[in-house]
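Appendix B, record 7
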Amino acid sequence: MTQPNTFVRIPKERIGVLIGPKGETKKAIEKMLSVDLQIESDTGGVTIVLAENAEDPSALLRAKDVVTAIGRGFSPEPAFKLIQDEETVLDVIDLRIIFGRSDSDIRRVKGRIIGMDGKTRRIIEELTDTNIAVYGHTVGIIGKVEHAQVAREAIQMLIEGRQHATVYKFLHRKRRELKKGMLELWQKPEDIE
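Structure tokens (predicted):
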């Protein structure tokens, strides 16, 4: 019987990051998720096979997310958050869907998202507790579901051409809402009334 598997293609220049120094990144993914990564260096194809001793079949999907994240420009550390915390998700925005094949529009929007010396991306990351990678024609977000959603909304606002100041105000407001929501979770029910 063949083991369950899935396939993902990543840019060839990201294969080295996926393998890591002396194969350490590849080995870490395989060990943590009980999978086998079969990497085609010449094409960028990665077949992920669930190990026979794997206890969790969802590990295959998590491994695919980790490989995709590394392929979309993340370093292994933020990508491993997808393994360590089940509430952490990967969200990828494909700018080609929005702008078609217009390289100039994609470059312009990537510049708006990154900002001068990376300032805008850093502010979005800090205010949403996420990691953001702008690579090729995509923008990747790694974070808890609610936080990733806020980061996506902020990036969408920048794509639509909203001013940076407007986006920063939105982020500050959302951060306060998220913090207030977390405080309410920790309060006893009688404290809320």
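Remarks on this record: Residues 16 and 23 are 9 Å apart (CA to CA). The longest strand covers residues 88-94.
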